[in-house]
Write a structure and sequence with these properties.
The protein has about 280 residues and is mainly α. It contains 10 helices and 2 strands, in the order H-H-E-H-H-H-H-H-H-H-H-E. Helix content is about 40%, strand content about 0%. The protein starts with about 30 loop residues before the first helix and ends with a strand. The N terminus is likely disordered. Bound molecules: fe (ii) ion (2 copies).
Amino acid sequence: MNAQTNTETRAVIGTDKAAYRNYAAPQISEAQQRVREFYRLNHTHQTHDFARAKKAEFLSFSRQRMTPWDALDYLNTLVDDSDPDTALPQIDHLVQTAEAMRADGQPDWMVLTGFVHDLGKVLCLFGEPQWAVVGDTFPTGCAYSPKIVYGEFFKHNADASNAELQTKHGVYKANCGLDQVHMSWGHDEYLYHLLRDHLPMEALYMIRYHSFYSWHKEGDYDHLCDAQDRAMLPWVQRFNPYDLYSKNPNRPVLKDVKPYYEDLMAKYLPAQLQF
Ligand SMILES: [Fe+2]
Ligand SMILES: [Fe+2]
């Protein structure tokens, strides 16, 4: 976690979309080095066993009860090391994402999804390192897509030398459905389980797979998908531009929009959540 305010990679609304998620600019800035080091750690340590162990550790939800607002307050202190596009605190990113959806007239459950989609980053509050919380996600236990960013670092992953885990389907059956797949562990999977009883399926797909770029952006891993995954993919893709292109360095004023989001949270979520 850090509070870097490097302005070099901040993206501004209205700039060329190619400027976002640019991991390979000719001159490596301090922020890009931070992202690169992040993925070195992430791809080295996110093994199949690690992903399963973290599910066992965190999906019992035995840590603490908090209101969703308490969790959002905590996110105010967090800057995501894996994000090359913003150095603003997370709460600003959530407000920007949701407000862009609201301005476009998206359904209210989707606006709420935009507002909470990174709430799972409270895992950092429980002492988890950023490489186990944020960044693009990928299936563990099978071959890595060549489209995954910084894929060269998978050579340091213990699973890379286990032939059984490096076949196309690995430990999975063809078209088993993504629900059966152990994704690399992080805030997406955690928040999905936290909110699974409260939001529509489309929203839950957005939350669970919003960082699975090699699937929703690159079109890989269809061989692990079932009919439901394919039906939900357009919703994940509909979510993505708001997550990505709403990032801009102008800090939104939370208090101006807070009453709207308080009502929206009250409509869909319980007053307290068991984290
Ligand atoms: Fe996220
Ligand atoms: Fe996000």
